[in-house]
Amino acid sequence: MNHVRLLLVEDDLTDQLGFKRFVKKQGLSYDYDISGSVTEALTLLSSNDYDVVIADHALGDGTAFDLFEYIPDTTAVIFVTGNDNTNIAVKALKTGASDYLSKDIDGHYLELLPHIIDAVLKSKADEIELDKHRNHLEKMVLERTIELHQEIEQRKLIEQQLRLLAVAFETHEAIVITDAQAIVLRVNQAFTSLTGYTAEEMLGKNMSVLNSGLQDSGFYSQLWRELIATGRFEGEVWNSRKSGEVYPEWLTITAILDDNGKTTHYVGNLADISKQKKAEAEIKKLAFYDSLTGLANRRLLLDRIDQECAVAKRNTCFGAIVFIDLDDFKPLNDTYGHNVGDELLIQLAKRLMHSLREEDTAARLGGDEFVVLIHANEKSFETALLNAKTVAAKIQTELNLAYSLNGQQHIFTSSIGITVFPKDVSGAENIINQADQAMYQSKKKGKNSICVFPK
What we know:
By secondary structure, this protein is α/β, with parallel strands linked by helices. Helix content is 45%, strand content 25%. The protein folds into 3 domains: 4-125, 3-Layer(aba) Sandwich (Rossmann fold); 155-276, Beta-Lactamase, CATH 3.30.450; 289-452, Alpha-Beta Plaits.
């Protein structure tokens, strides 16, 4: 973890001490100050720069809301409130807080603190970077506008833009010009190539004929609000070609204004981004999914377990891990070759997915080891364990059916281990290790059985 400069605003001495002990025990690289009041916090804020401010709602001389206007935009704010103060937490998020923590009596909320700090710092960094790009773009637009005024001093703005568009109209970029009600006045050849609609077919039609139906009316309402307010829209839109094919498109719309600042026309630039989207999907697949079975890989599994643990602790719920290992898989590879072994794993993965609910995650750790993450939505440990046993038994029954491999029928059994979280340990690796230990107990019992950690 990178070095973090932090201010804790907390008037409860017990909670202050709990925070100090937690930071020290966890070995967190936080450089922190602690203030017990609004007044003291304002003094520290005026003379120090912090990455994160953690502010308790109720303070002796005011509330955390009294601090918001004095906290720089570049500083992330984590709002701390009691378990029954959800409405206040929502108000804090609307006021400018990056996230919030619900304080419990035993101080377990502190266990979520490092994860939340990491998340809000990343979010704040992304926000700052986006602002930099936005400011840079605005500067470029301003500079270009000044250049245009210098080049064509005596011409009206509307004439400037239309002349420039006329020169560049027949390019490889798809361009459409509409009136103020989005009725098409002109399209270029690139537009026809992109959408399949000829100029004659589009003339007089509303641009809504391209709508794919994948984005609801709320999306288009927001598009128009932004366009009317700023004179520009830029973003990803899912449109439909004349053939009915739906495709992703990067759409840029610019308003054309008359001398009185009234919008008279819109100019749209359309670009097919199907290849980019496909490339992004491939990159994501390679990074997070097993190339043989298509199941989640270890990296994605660990991330989802950590997310489930955080949600489980926050909502006081339980989930489970089911660790599956095929019995006597190696002899198949040795006898028939890896191609047959791979086919077995592919068939197993399909059966595994068929046995699960949509909210559960199936993953391949490697070799013939598979893990199922059962969504943490059970309110008691016992119910979560019972549900996990039911799922494990269903999986085992499905996996024990005969496989057709290389023209022959083969029977394989599976040894399964179960652990319920959150309980004794934290961290995705530790939770998986518990399920792994339970699976090895199944092996020792003679295979084709189900064991629960720590029994």
